[in-house]
Design a protein that fits this description.
- The protein is α+β, with helices and mostly antiparallel strands.
- The chain has 2 domains: 97 residues, no CATH class; 156 residues, 3-Layer(aba) Sandwich (YojJ-like (1), CATH 3.40.1700.10.
- It is built from 12 helices and 7 strands.
- The chain has a 7-stranded mixed β-sheet, with helices on both faces.
- Helix 2 crosses helix 6.
- It is elongated, with a radius of gyration of 24 Å.
- The relative contact order is 0.11.
Length: 266
């Protein structure tokens, strides 16, 4: 134990500017990883892994276990590969978020307002009739992989069209509609389900809306078939709305406000 303390003290004495920068960069990377894992089941794995590694490290140092210390010193490459394999979905999600640009497909003009009116009208009517629905609005992250799982439409965006798609027992009512550039680009598209903690009790539609908002910057509107309730998923968060009068205002805040600020700054 005394040798361990002396080693730590000697290391601290040898710190210089470059070493401090190294530590800062690693700390920022670890913080970014923890923020990406926050609220997911992977966070539990991280806690368990950290506890086990610290326990083994301290045990080897305190009891001066030669084999354990050797394994700890030489296991870093294996740990890195293991982390990449175990946390592949979270790492991919973080890289996708980092690669998103500030440019938006939705530009502020009268057509945007009309498009949001059509979506809000459809959602309100679906909620009143308790017809379940998921409407996904594509932004800067392309959704081509998800579009390919559904039926390609490329139809004009209208409330009547959306309502007809989600009419009970219609061929395309069971999955998601994807909107791109103010057109209904696909219907009956399959979305990834969220695995975040607390979602096990959610319905499939809500988990799918959360899932697509976690993996992309798309905004998803969900109408519950059981209650007629309306929720909007964005950036891994599910926002329940008190009534249908808030649909358009919430979509404007999520889809258009950032674009407005970006264009103003430019």
């Amino acid at each position: 134990m005394r040798q361990f303390v002396e080693d730590v003290w000697d290391t601290l004495h040898r710190l210089d500017g470059a070493a401090a920068l190294d530590i800062l960069i690693i700390a920022v990377l670890i913080y970014a990883l923890l923020m990406a894992l926050r609220g997911t089941t992977a966070m539990t794995l991280v806690r368990g892994g950290v506890v086990i590694v610290i326990a083994i490290f301290l045990l080897g140092r305190v009891l001066d276990l030669a084999v354990v210390n050797f394994l700890v010193r030489n296991s870093l490459p294996g740990l890195v590969i293991g982390i990449i394999v175990i946390f592949q979905p979270e790492i991919r999600r973080t890289l996708e978020r980092a690669g998103r640009t500030s440019l938006r497909r939705w530009l502020i003009n009268p057509e945007d307002d009309l498009a949001l009116d059509e979506i809000a009208t459809a959602v309100s009517n679906l909620a009143r009739q308790r017809h379940g629905a998921i409407i996904v609005v594509e932004r800067s992250t392309g959704l081509e992989d998800l579009i390919e799982t559904g039926i390609h439409l490329d139809a004009e965006l209208s409330a009547r069209m959306i309502e007809s798609i989600f009419f009970p027992n219609s061929p395309m009512h069971d999955k998601a509609v994807i909107i791109r550039d103010k057109r209904i680009i696909a219907a009956s598209a399959t979305l990834p389900l969220s695995s975040a903690s607390g979602t096990a009790r959610m319905g499939t539609r809500h988990r799918a809306a959360l899932g697509v908002s976690e993996e992309t910057d798309a905004v998803a509107v969900v109408v519950s078939e059981e209650s007629g309730g309306i929720s909007i998923a964005s950036e891994g968060r599910l926002i329940p709305l008190r009534d249908d009068s808030r649909v358009k205002a919430t979509l404007e805040a999520l889809l258009l406000a950032r674009t407005s600020r970006t264009r103003t700054a430019a």
